[in-house]
Design brief:
Layout (H helix, E strand, L loop, with lengths): L2 H20 L5 H15 L16 H9 L11 H5 E9 L4 E7 L5 E9 L4 H12 L12 E8 L19 H4 L5 E7 L7 H4 L5 H20 L12 E3 L5 E3 L4 H8 L22 H15 L5 H10 L10 H11 L9 H9 L3
Antiparallel strand pairs: 1-2, 2-3, 3-5, 4-5, 6-7
Helix pairs in contact: 1-2, 3-5, 5-9, 8-10, 8-13, 10-12
């Protein structure tokens, strides 16, 4: 973590501490505002005086407010509005949108993922957010960098409602939909807008192997940290601005699964382990086995792709080279104990050319 980020975190912690101490008694808010204003003039804080907001990272306190269905937090103000200059929308998934925004303190551009949370999902969100927050501690060349995250009450309109074109849309959603009143923000590094899903059938063998090896390196790191992705698929494989593979949306799949268990995932179902209830590292191995199949097979139609990838769930392997077929079998075996580990898979892939 660079010095600017460390300073930002220190500022946030100090402001949170001041807020906690000052606001215990009557008139505390006014005392807090005056103290922060004074410290801002001294140069202790680098926030514009007119846009000061408490950027607390005391997530447990925030979650307590959420679980009690309090939409107005005394700790978090309009941090995103005050601290970031949003420019363009980079993309949208089943449960959130990503925007390009410039942070006023270091003047750098970041990808900001916004995940709207409605009151009906507060309990589910509380049960999974701790897993998401741990991602900010992960750092690897093949993992999308998560810098920080925070929660704010939503003021006014938001930009993510279910629609027939949305991956998360289901006919029951339109009947049960409740407008979100909390927004969960995740600050991430910037990646290219195109994903592996868009180019997987256009690559030569050497490029495919290089990308596959980078994916495996990223998953090796995750598994070493006891983090299971649970939603590996080409759509979640991004690329840095210099072309390096970046695995995205790990951990967030748990949020999607718990908060939208009955929603359709469309393409992602093709990559999900039929033994997903096991919920361990082998589910990622299965997903990689499906991606290896997609790397190798040149599908002529979408129907052919769906048919072959679905057949993998029954153990039916398409006609491919025997050494590749044996690797796929070791990834998707219905006998969990027969599946290879990510380290064993890495050794097997190194033998391919």
């Amino acid at each position: 973590m660079d010095s600017v980020q460390s300073r930002t975190d220190a500022m946030s912690n100090l402001m949170s501490l001041l807020h906690t101490v000052c606001c215990r008694g009557v008139g505390g808010k006014e005392k807090y505002d005056k103290l922060v204003h004074y410290m801002n003039e001294l140069g202790v804080f680098e926030y514009p005086t007119t846009t000061l907001s408490v950027a607390s990272n005391q997530h447990h306190d925030i979650l307590s407010n959420i679980s009690n269905k309090i939409t107005q937090s005394p700790i978090i103000g309009p941090r995103y509005q005050n601290d970031y200059n949003e420019t363009i929308k980079l993309g949208e998934g089943g449960f959130g949108s990503v925007y390009l925004a410039r942070y006023f303190l270091d003047k750098k551009l970041y990808a900001i993922k916004k995940i709207p949370i409605s009151s009906q999902n507060i309990v589910d969100f509380e049960s999974t957010v701790s897993e998401i927050l741990v991602l900010s501690r992960l750092e690897h060349p093949n993992i999308v960098r998560y810098y920080t995250s925070w929660i704010e009450p939503i003021h006014g309109e938001h930009d993510h409602t279910p629609s027939p074109g949305d991956d998360s849309y289901n006919s029951t959603d339109s009947l049960e939909y409740q407008p979100p009143n909390i927004m969960f923000y995740i600050k991430m590094e910037i990646c290219k807008t195109s994903t592996l899903a868009e180019i997987i059938h256009t690559m030569d063998t050497d490029t495919s192997l290089d990308i596959l090896r980078q994916i495996i390196q990223g998953v090796m790191y995750l598994h070493d940290q006891n983090v299971v992705h649970r939603d590996l698929k080409p759509k979640n494989i991004l690329f840095s601005t210099t072309g390096i593979v970046k695995i995205a949306d790990f951990g967030l799949s748990a949020l999607e699964n718990q908060m939208a268990m009955l929603r359709s995932s469309r393409g992602s179902l093709l990559y999900k382990d039929p033994h997903v209830y096991v919920n361990d590292k082998t589910v990622d191995i299965y997903s990689i086995g499906v991606m290896i199949t997609e790397f190798i097979c040149g599908f002529n139609t979408q129907m052919e792709r769906i048919k072959i990838l679905c057949a993998l769930k029954k153990g039916d392997i398409p006609h491919v080279r025997q050494n590749i077929k044996s690797i796929i079998i070791k990834c998707i075996s219905n006998t969990i104990n027969d599946r290879c580990t990510i380290y064993q898979l890495n050794d097997l892939i190194q033998t391919l050319s």
